[in-house]
Design brief:
The chain has 82 residues and is an alpha+beta fold. Helix content is 22%, strand content 29%. The protein has one domain: Beta-grasp domain (Ubiquitin-like (UB roll), Roll), CATH 3.10.20.
């Protein structure tokens, strides 16, 4: 198992009612595995699945990126405003 922290913004923060999560995941999990777990637990996030960008430790990454224990992951949905 690996331990990661997920920082939540916009719709993710609104849906989960918190600004971060600490999770344990199976070794070998990817960013996409993590997103799929959140969408499974919170189906209201499904529409945002295909338009979210990802970061690990302050760098943008593709969804296939493997996670390591201690990583800080961010989900960045599209935002608007002025």
């Amino acid at each position: 198992m690996i331990a990661v922290t997920v920082k939540l913004f916009a719709i993710y923060q609104e849906t989960l009612g918190q600004d971060h999560l600490s999770l344990n995941l199976p070794a070998g999990s990817t960013v996409l595995d993590l997103l799929d777990r959140l969408v499974e637990d919170y189906p209201d996030l499904a529409p945002w699945r295909s338009v979210t960008r990802f970061g690990i430790n302050l760098e943008f990454v593709p969804p296939e990126t493997p996670l390591r224990s201690g990583d800080e992951i961010v989900f960045i949905p599209p935002v608007s405003g002025g």
